[in-house]
Amino acid sequence: MLTFFILNSGKLAHLIGAMKISVELTLTPIQDDFEPVIINLIKALRASDLTVIENPLSTQVYGEYDKVMDVLQTEVKTAFEAMDRGVLYMKLVKSDRSDYTPHF
């Protein structure tokens, strides 16, 4: 006899471990005064409980899926409201790659 248990996503995540993701962001405001928008987004991401790694071309954010997406939803909206026009490039990977080191 098979028994199936249906759990809501929060309980399931607690039992089996939350899904981890890696996100790469490149924000490109299309306006003359573009730096403050980028700086404010990065500062907001740093202030979250997420792992944030920056380089000259992009910002990477790592953590549990729901937490990352909640923070991004809020902070991307704030960034978009602060600029006239812009583009946000975002890549999502289903794993935490924050400890990646090249093997070559």
What would your notes on this structure say?
The chain is α+β, with helices and mostly antiparallel strands and 104 residues long. The protein has a single domain, classed as Alpha-Beta Plaits, CATH 3.30.70.930. Helix content is 37%, strand content 27%. It contains 3 helices and 4 strands; from the N terminus they run H-E-H-E-E-H-E. The chain has a 4-stranded antiparallel beta sheet. A hairpin with a 4-residue loop joins strand 2 and strand 3.
Q: Give the structural class.
A: alpha+beta
Helical percentage: 25-40%
* CA-based gyration radius: 17 Å
How many E strands?
Answer: 4
- The ordered string of helix (H) and strand (E) elements is HEHEEHE
Highest CATH level, the class: Alpha Beta
Strand content is: 25-35%
Shape label: globular
Q: What profile does the largest beta sheet have?
A: 4 strands, antiparallel
Poorly predicted ranges (pLDDT <50, ≥5 residues)? 1-7
